[in-house]
Amino acid sequence: MSNLSLELKDVRKSFGKSEIIRGANLQVPKGERFAIIGPNGAGKSTLFNLISGRFPVSAGDIKLNGESILGLKPFEINRKGLSRSFQITNIFHRLSVYENLRCAVLWSLGYKYSFWHRLNGLKDAHERAEQVLEQIGLRRRRDTQAGLLTYAEQRALEIGITIAGGCDVILLDEPTAGMSRSESDAAVELIRKVTVGKTLLMVEHDMSVVFGLADKIAVVVYGEVIACDTPANIRNNAKVQEAYLGGHAPVEAA
Amino acid sequence: MNTITMTNTMTYKPMNLGRWIVWGLFALILIFAPMVFSSGSSISLLSQIGTVMIFGLSYNMLLGQGGMLSFGHAVYSGLGAFFAIHAMNLASAGKMWMPVTMIPLVGGLAGMFFGILFGYVTTKKSGTTFAMITLGIVELVFACSLMFPEFFGGEGGISTNRVYGEKFLGITYGPQIQVYYLIAFWLFISTIGMFAFTQTPLGRIINAVRDNPERVEFIGYDTQWARYLTLILSGFFAGISGGLSAINFEIVTAENVSALRSGGVLLFTFIGGVGFFFGPMIGAIIGVFLSVMLSDFTKAWQLYLGVFFIVMVMYAPFGVAGIIMLNLRVAKYGKYRRIWPQLCAVSAMALVALVGLIMVVEMLYHLTLESANGTEMKLFGFMVDTAAATPWGVALAILAIGAAGFWHTRKSFKHAWGEVNTEIEDMIRRAEA
Prior knowledge:
Helices cover 34% and strands 24% of the residues of chain A. Chain A is an alpha/beta fold. Chain B is an all-alpha fold. In chain B, helix 1 packs antiparallel against helix 7, helix 2 crosses helix 12 and helix 8 crosses helix 10. Chain B is globular.
């Protein structure tokens, strides 16, 4: 077994004639927290969509725990231990908060498509859902319809659904986007808490979140990973400074 | 009526007393209904309602619980009915052993088999594409029914005699009342089965697929497979209802597998309320009443049904069940006395407008379709001449008065209703905090 959770080898993706990802390489060791930063339109979210199987890659290879996941469907990749959140909140809006979380744990507990188990009799699913509910701080809102939650609460639920299945590799796409300072501080604490011992890869614009959480930062510009290093080194990296300050795009919330 | 919290299927409750009471009441109603409505015609009406209830509930597994708008659900009930009726004919000819009591199971298995067959194609897609493919399938099966008269009986259909085999405890299924209890028995266990389905992992995942199929793919589930399995199970229950209708009517025709029948179940289920488990049962009662009873009274019954459906879709998208639940909620919070004066006023005015509308429609139908046999007709107990100006003036005046009154009282009702519901929602929110 490889000690890399996730490995991208010369990954390319074209939409029509335009190549959005042009040979991205990235190695994420087990248990580390990686942040992906870069100007708008650099291809960060596309990279996430490729890794999670939402889009097929045009060329290159993606390995999850040393095993290629090319051509697998999103649910197959999820079953192999990778889970992701979305930039635009993606929850089950007509189900209660508790039911959202219970849905998210069912596969990992092996219930599959069962129509012979009584849902309310599944103690392990119940306990796991309650546990995540406690972790994301939505106990009070347990029976509220998810669509009626506040924005910050929906973002917390989004993270809850992502981690509930117990995957080892977690991808978070702009978890604090659109949050106030205090909400985003709370979100950072939440992410830190729920990803202990897991591999985390997140796209983030808020530099205080990035520097507060990440062990390493990967900088994506024009579909390439131009640098991947510790936060301190990234700050002083000439290429990164050029990409951000050299006229392509302004520094975002530095 | 814009916000509605559907916590009814979503709370974590172990098997509780309330649920036992509800199921017990349901059983009692099924047992005593034919004693209260004991005339021959009402018992056959009840029998028909029972089969449509199973059909509607099975349809709602797709529409309400899975967000799958099917235009071809009659394929499963209809083919179930054909297999059931052939099984009955074979059994009465002595070629196989199958008591009438178990015939619905034949229908169910046939429905399930065709669910496996057609569902594999239809559930590959969702949304509009799914709807279009189901429409294609129902047209295909309907065309086949005319191509294979051997099996489908051509235009006359296949008929049977449900009284065969040996008597068991005096039950021959000759009298309608015995058929009613057979239907009631299958309705009861089918309803339990379909309710139990909503309380299983697959039943919950199909809700998640309805809400957000994309996200379901990222929590480890293949949405296509979830839809497929749900459709197969739904086909099973639809087939049971088909088998029961074969016993009930002793005839199955191509109409049973038609798009018309499929549209009917969509209409009834929607009118009943897709957001609630019991909605389709209310829809079945209303639907059968409208299509069987109303068609005895008036030629315009399809017009009334269509208008009713449009009004429901526009103003009460949660159906009759939604209206009942919202009113119960108001009653539960003890706020009914604040809205009932306005409610009575607006209902009375709506009734006046409705009377006017019915008069106009009936007179128009009579004048255009039946005036050859004289322009006079009986309307609400009065003889009126549809060619004269006076009845038209009266009808239009009633309609105008009703409509104006409705328009006027509607505002104050809307205001009171909105106020009360906002207060209730505030109370619920505060209780949670």
